[in-house]
Amino acid sequence: MLLKNANILVVDDDADVLIALRLLLKTKVKSVTTEQNPANLVHLIKTHKFDVVILDMNFNGLINTGNEGIYWLNKIKETDNNLAVILITAYGDLDLAIRSLKKGASDFLVKPWKNDKLIDSLYDILDKKSSKKTKTSITLEKGNELLGDSNEMKDVFFKIKKIAPTDANILILGENGTGKDLIAKAIHNNSLRKDKPFVKVDVGALTETLFESELFGYKKGAFTDAREDRKGRFEAAHGGTLFLDEIGNISLQQQARLLTVLQNRLVTPLGSNQPIPIDIRLICATNLHINSLADETHFRKDLIYRINTVEIIVPPLRNRGKDIILLAKHFIDLYSDKYLKSSFKLSDNFKKKLSNYHFPGNVRELQYALERAIIMTDDSILHEGDLVFSPIEKSTQKINENDLKLETIEKNAILKVIEKNNGNISKSAKELGITRTALYRRLNKYGL
3-133 with 141-313: one CATH topology? Predict the structure, then answer.
């Protein structure tokens, strides 16, 4: 964790000490909270998010044994055992230092402290806290993290760390809302190209007419509205990473154009005859199953091999077990800060409802449900009733459960008949006993 993102609590009955530490830290950390009365410690920790507490060892001014500091250290650890504590005293007693460290203190400094030593101590503590998280998270830019402690996500993290430093093309597979774009960004941020551009394109949303101009660029006058030269996304990503999202939704014609560029590593802008060399690392993502991509009536196998040097399958949230609560706490902290609310506790029935839900919308649905809960509640404890899931996802899930088998049978039947008739729609419609218009509707429905 970076020092500039840290929230520090300083507890000392000496007002001069509080002023000195505030002046020292205010330009180096995110926030500094000061408190003279240690009796307010527990309440502050419960209602605010702190990364480190700097705690005086002596408060009553009569008996300077440090017992007061040990007492309040124990209270801190009872409240939040993961909270780091630096103890400060005017009496450099080695035995006292050893006692405090055994009780869970992260460091021990003697007054008058050296400013650089205190800052170094904070750096070390925050680095250690970050290193403990590496097993369950991968850091993205701006403090964002890709979180997970389940075996499924640990496998994903292992693959990211292995493949990120290479230039291998990656195919990310997973349901909507599982975080495929975060996986792509994590690969880029952990690669040798991390200081170069990361360019994302939702190719599934590009029309036939926009596909080439958007990806390959164009020259002035190439078409009616081409008033100036424009670089395509391939050129914009030169030296860095190009992320093509929803790759499974592009047409066979678009796939052929894309394959040519990837094979030759050259793009030719519309209106130009001069090919331009490109140096990119390609990452693609789709919510389609790999079996669907293997169907050559829908997706070219030669393109699959080109984009799929390594595949990463992102598990749905319902298969990630304890990650549900881990992610829930992360989003609750995030939205508590965003909406300026105190920290929240999760009731047992709240956790149970979270753990038992199937999350058809995956992490995205969890995130929005928790944001709503934080906005709407006036309590400091989140209960079962605060958790409302989207009726959109519920209706989608119901349709899938009731109709999936029937739709699969119909889709497969259409594919077999069209293949039998060598793509002749009129013959296929007649054999299926439906009109050409009805067949076209079904082709569109199943993305065929």
Answer: yes
